[in-house]
Amino acid sequence: MAIPLIGATILEAGTSSGTVTDIDGGFAMTLSEGAKQLRISYTGFITKNVPVTNVTSYEIILAESSSTLDEVVVIGYGSTSKRFLTDNVVKLSSEDIDKVPVANFQSTFAGKAAGVRVTQTNGKVDAGINIRVRGASSVSAGSQPLYVLDGVPLINQNESQNGAPTNPLLSLSPSEIESIDILKDASSAAIYGARGANGVVLITTKRGKIGKARMNLNVSTGTSSPTNLVEFLNAEEYVELLTEASVNGGEEARVIRTLDAISNGTDWRNGEVDTDWNDEAFRSGSQTNANFSVSGGDEKTIYYFGGAYNDTEGILLGNALERFSARTNLKHNFTDRFSAGLNLGYSTTTIDRIANDNAFVNPIQAIAQAPISPARLADGTPYAGTVYPNFLLELDFGNYVTKLRRLTGKAYGQYKILDGLSFNTDFGYDMSYQTEDQFRGSRTPFQATNGQVRNSNSVQESYVFTNYLTYERDLTEKHNINLVAGTEFNQADRFFNSVTGNEFPSDDFQTINSAAEITEGLGVRSSYAFFSYFGRAQYVYDGRYFVKGSIRRDGSSRFGANSRYGIFPAGSIGWIVSQEPWLQNNPTLSFLKLRLSYGQLGNSEIGNFPSLFLFQGTSYNQRSGIQPTQPGNNDLTWETSTQLDLGLEFGLLDSRLSGEIDFYNKRTEGLLFEVPLPGSSGATAINQNIGILDNRGVEFVLNADLINSDGFVWNANFNAARNFNELVELPNNNADVIFSQNINRVGEPISAHYLPEYAGVDPENGDALYFINGDGEDAGETTNSVNEANRKVVGNPFPDWTAGFTNTISYRGVTLNFTFMGEWGASVYNGGGRFQSANGDFYDNQTVDQLNRWQNPGDITDVPEARFFGGNGTANSTRYLDRADFIRLRNLTLSYDLPRLFNDKVGLSDTQIYFTGINLLTFTDFPGYDPESRNDSNDDLSTGQSFYSAPAAKTVSVGINVNF
């Protein structure tokens, strides 16, 4: 028995004229004179072409598709069938992100797109998101992809003022997203020109469908906990280690005095106080999600109204997020030729912030406190006599609140000029308004004044005006063309202000107007503009040969006066080999397509004024003046990426087994660097385009319809990617650029780890040893002085391999969906290891592995002898460099669809109850908190480093999804 399909798309072939089916699967439309075919498509079914005859009624049955070959893919200023696609594009639907209880939508597609690495900086609810499409494509310019929401490029600039980046796109609720299309290669992304080098993420929000009003309610609630906790010494073990270290270091009297002080007079020798600071810093978090929507429409008007609420309490004490969001999408057909619509979204997000990873008052730094120190006194107030400032003082007597308000919208119209020719005009707007209010009371750490308040506000606005023509037509039965040509103007403005005041009457006064003294004020205003021409042409012959070309000419105020405009071309070809007569009826190979693409892209994320001579006001002897702050470079321009992609798509056994294999080579030239200048020039550096970076790799995707019998269905997807990242050219005759524990060196990956090699412990005396790393006779020799050891490249901060494995298993209303993801080849430097795993070098509490320290001649161990203030093995070295390989069960959903009989009785369309888990299992040998977490205190100087960085949260939740 055939089931009516609601919302199937009916198009008159060769035109943009069409409609969608109603609740009963019916449709009605007026055809143009000479119409030859109807094209019917629906997600999950094979697109069907139906000849137009003299009859007025059609009964059309679509066959279910066992692959994704016929799904519609958004490609920028248009869409196409994946079957005819000559580009590398990953499509994710709302099913991939629904019921995943995370505050940010980016985390929902981790592990689901080959070559797309998605990581959250650490376990804070507001932590920044790092996405790399086919590796890191820049050294100093932006590395994030361009996000486009319903055709509007989104503001994605971090405005955090506490040193730790936040995710500017937290404002977007996952519940309002219909699909996400990720453009990975140059052919697909070149239509975005100077902004496409890091990939493009196209986000399509939900729309209404023709039929009666359909309401949806989805509610879930759950709890969170850290994925992992590192075990530290208890009070007895701590006293044993510190006592031994004080004797070996000749500091016994000093250490005893300090232990007496930090224990608040308690009997530390007998463990009167034994504080687990992990328990003080972490808590059981919680999460509540609720969203409601109403959608529907008729042949004239379709509508979608939705609202969502998210309340997340983080796993770190004092960290929380609350978000309200609403969306309205409307479209109305005024005539058969003219239609217009409005997409409008608003959200407000309130975040309770905590300090960055490098701050003593960051909760996780409490693990450095001695277990013999109480966290709180008997009256409940935080104990202020700890070794380091007690973060609870900041928690109780201060606050830091960030509020993000986001308004996005697009008004658009489409006019059908002729059959197959239409004109689109879009006006998009994106406004991000963020305020940050920090109050630090008189009892907070490092507070020299009687309280301090800092308020800041940042407003960013972006206007996008786009006009383009689209022409699509079947010239003959075998010849189809699709042409797009248009212009786009984008203006963006940023305003930032902040003010700081000190000395308050009491902690009850927490606004700036009560400050006795205004100590600092700042005001910044900046803007940029783009003006672009773009075009794309695609030709399809006989449904099996494809040629596509695109070009974009971008001009931007960011570039130098001599290099203001750039041209970004791309071309691609495709061939469905399986459509050839000699392969068409092959019983095994049901689909085979080859595609090749080549093109150029730009990276314009180089700041707003990097090419200009800049000056600022200053004072001298209480008189105003100006001073130069940046030398200009009229030739400064974008970083250019040239990319070649060779792909093969295949389907076996009637496409029950399908997949893709891609090889790519991406070279980025004109890397932006600050080149040092002589002091006599009056400036320290000048921005120049110098440097070359290569990314090359392979991607593999395999989809399998494993079982589909008697109501039991099992589908699986596996993807894997290998990326090689290598610097080819650097400034100053390829001179090394060394920073922190990293290096940029020709022939090595970006920000490679650069450290002396730790050689273990001398079994005779307990000294830490390091390899000298010399040549000839010195090769392999060791020394107990790190100053005699040569640094060398010892690790890559980026993984060599990434992979994801997703399964969907269903039987009689019960569905299990889960995704494993993994990374291999990356190394993480634990910047906090010199304090946490330092064999009793100072008063910091130590990881339990330090109990295995050297104590007697002949001991074989990697932990040196405990020597207080001895610096024995605490130098930066590979002792604190760890492989970050892992496999993680990223998400799991178990759902049950209630029987139709139950839904009919209560008047519902369908009801589903579900259980969801995030990060339930992690398989790794990584010794720290989490192999994915990184230091958030200085992103540029801590690539591949952790420093008291919070682990990801493990979340379990239950929910109900109701349609009526």
Mean pLDDT: 91
DSSP strand content: over 45%
What is the class of the largest domain in the CATH system? Mainly Beta
| Backbone CA Rg | 30 Å
Task: Give the helix level as a range of percent.
Answer: under 10%
CATH superfamily assignment of the largest domain? TonB-dependent receptor, beta-barrel domain
- Assembly of the depicted chains: single chain
- State the shape: globular
SSE-based structural type: mainly beta
Number of strands: 49
Q: Please tally the helical runs, counting DSSP H or I stretches of 4 or more residues.
A: 9
User: Largest beta sheet, briefly?
Assistant: 22 strands, antiparallel, barrel
CATH-defined topology of the largest domain: Maltoporin, Chain A
Report the end-to-end length measured between terminal Cα atoms: 24 Å
Low-pLDDT stretches: none
- Count of the domains: 2
Return the CATH architecture of the largest domain.
Answer: Beta Barrel
